[in-house]
Design goal:
Strand content: 5-15%
Distance between the termini: 79 Å
Radius of gyration: 35 Å
CATH class of one domain: Alpha Beta
Strand order of the largest sheet: 5-6-4-7-8-1-9
Number of strands: 24
Structural class: alpha/beta
CATH superfamily of one domain: P-loop containing nucleotide triphosphate hydrolases
Number of helices: 39
Amino acid sequence: MSLFVRDEDDEQEQEQLVLDLNSVRDDNAPEANIKDGQDDGEEHVEYPLIAREEEEDLVDQIEPINISLTLPLKFQQLVLEDLVSDDSLLILGKGLGLEPIAANLLHTLSAPATIANVTKRSLVVVLGATDEDNEKFSEELQELSWLDEDDRDDSKRPFIVIKSDQYTADKRQKLYQSGGIMSVTSRIFIVDMLSGIVNPSKITGIVVMHAERVNDLSNESFIVHMYRQQNKWGFIKALTDSAEDFSTGFSPLHRKLKDLRLKKILLWPRFHIEVSSSLMNKDTKSVTEINVMMTESMKHIQTGLLGCLKKCIEELKRKNPTLAIDYWNIENALDPNFLGVIHMILDPNWHRISFDSKQLVKDIKLLKHLLKCLISYDAVDFYEVIQLVLEANKPSVDKRNSESPWLMADESQAVISYAKKRVYENDEYVLEENPKWEQLAILLDDIVIERAHNPHKDGPVLIMCSDSKVCFQLKRFLSTMKESKTGSRSYSGRKVMVDKLQAYLDAKEEKTNVTSKIQEAAAQESQDQEVTISRAFARGPVTSKRRRTRGGAAVAAVGRLLSAPTPGDDIESKLNKDDVEMELFELDASDIEDLGNEDEEEQVEEIGKVAEEPEAINEQASTRTFEYIDRENQVITERYQSKTDDLILQELMPSFIIMYEPDLSFIRRVEVHQANFKDDPARTYFMYYNDSVEEQRHLTAIKKEKEAFTKLIREKSSLASHFETEEDFSKFSIRKSQVMNTRIAGGANFRNPSDESRVLVDHREFRAPLPGLLYRIGLRVVPCMLTVGDYIVTPKVCIERKSIPDLIGSFKSGRLYEQCERMSKYYELPALLIEFDNNQSFSLEPFSETRIRPNSVQAPHPTSSGRMQDEIQMNLAALVLKFPKMKILWSSSPYQTTELIMELKASREEPDIVKAVEAGTKEDKQRNNDSTKSNIITLLQNIPGITNVDLYSIMRKFKDVNKLTGMDREQLNDAVGEDLGERIYDHIQANYIE
């Protein structure tokens, strides 16, 4: 089976699946002239680019326009035609050119329309685009504008990115009115729509990138819902190349179409007939697969890690039988989304599962990371990672069950021993090199020979790796490798391994020195604090060292636990721990010089000189010279970046491409690149370890994508037609009579049930899903620049919303105290809303664990987690004692928060926008309002010893609050008595007077 393109054994099944993809196009489709940059003489099909008007005479005056495209492949042109013809969701195979298709789509849809010799510029909004997407769109659209060769101002399609508050509201309004293509963040755009800065009826259409991220709580879904309510003629297009994200849950395709308000789905996998015919070129040279064998030590380590991983998964299923699913097995463990699926099931019940289960989840994550390190790291780096893991699992006073379960398995001992064997065995340094290094060097040598026979191959050599660490590793190897002069061709990277060993020893020595200095300083400090006394007054030695105490062992254990320092269990922090043992490599610099031949001795001596003279490094850096290297002599190493890989191929135009590690997205981009440049295709090499997790991970990625498209094709074939009207959505909105009491009592003003209910929302809150939910149930959401609170529900009710991570951060910074103080000052009923995530457990335990050790290899002990929960609860209790008027609202999800706000708004007045915005911006000149008076009463009630009779008597004597606060000590003593006057005066001065 080939690893490069696809599974070739299931062509009959794929052809059967493709039959469902070839939907019949509408024969009655209107026409618009679309011109490709490469005219192939085919019949042009025309599509409408503006809304239809009811007047037939106006339609007749629409002039056809010519549009240039930069899509040379046939299947990309067909995808664009399908997108232009109808509103639809496009799911494209990974790496097949989603960004160029999107750029040409934007260029086509934003074309100005000419009606009766009047040109009107379109307004197209792009949502969900990343920085890389915007950069590629800008370059592609600039090239397309040059191809059109139209210099008229009204025919230009400006591309503007609005991703922060760099543009004022007036500036954004002018940009929207001028038209063009606007790539806007969803938070800014929804605020602009609600504020009236942009009119939805004036928007030509919306293009949603990365549609897999859209859900019922996302801002993109909120925008599409609001846009379609007010604009029936504009288009909505959604694009994605992540089919795997549509394969989870029940009817994922139906739910996604509902969130995007779309009815049509376009599926274009790699095995589509048009895609295969476009990419399969007979003239393209075959790909050379280089199957590298792992060393025996690497095989044993991989077997041990997989064995430990299998045991961890089985133990997790055994401890959680009611939550476990069939997906939890070793076959799916290499899936990148494996941990995500585990957390998706366990997170809602995280506070109920045991400590062992939490530790097993941590171990599964760690073992997957170790499998990746085994393939990518060299022997010294991998052994260092193993040593750090062992140090993180050392037992200590403040930890119970500190050792991870996987370290107790027999396979773990094989992993540790063989990791050490790769570096050091039988009192000798082995320093085992990565097998791929030598094969890469031989391959580069073959490329030099091929260039000599084929001088037309004048492009550089491009080596693609998984991450920047591997790129740096290969650069060091290629710049220091030595060729063996005896026997067959072989290359050695001994110099790199010696450098790695030297760096490891230096780090160990430096850590030991730092530890010793800290211990000496602590010992000196303890000696300075001792008091020198005479022997006559010194206490004699205790005759009995054993003393019986009821519960003494438990008390001592708790004392050690509370007095122990916070454990640094994460791998990075272990470098600074006090307990450091030189378990290996107890050699000095002179021992390293005996590792190899004379050349290697000179290299180690040079390393020592550089380490002794740091000034020489800066001097060499300042005097570094650069020289020009011909393209055919360039060897460039880059890491995989799915959004910019095609730009690298276009800019470098390499003659040889070496995939040092497999990556499905880049493989597809190479196929597209080869199909675009058929005249001189690049020679491609594909390297992978045989019978390794690297090979299996790549095959799993191909399998998962194929299964995802298969499921989507079958769901599409049985997808029911969806019809909707405005009445269908209005029935889900609340009726004002349901939340408004029209009874007139006590001289209250009459309220009309048809009046609009509104909620004032701070503009920073639109990152959360709550404003969108409030809008969907029928409330008018008014974005404001609020200084006090996040949500103003009524003139008296102000809510400060906090998610749990934000709550913990606010306690730490002290920001929450200031926010509650302002709310209590300006509103009668301040409230703190603590909102949990819909997919998280309704408990503080998971968040307290995250606060303890966010990057730990171990799950925190329940005792430590309980202490953190107690700390959060104590902070909340102190906050309530400080602000007695403030209420705390607990919400398990944004949906429940919506219900709480509706209950708070029932039978109450609507908030005043002007007062809400002005609150907190300036001090009130008069303090005789009800809010200030209520604050004074609350402060008086908190005075120790004051009774309700005293409070009533004081309020009768001082009806003017300013008069009470303005009196001096003697006047208060004369009015209410010396004892009570002193307490009132001191309390007001300390808590009220600023």
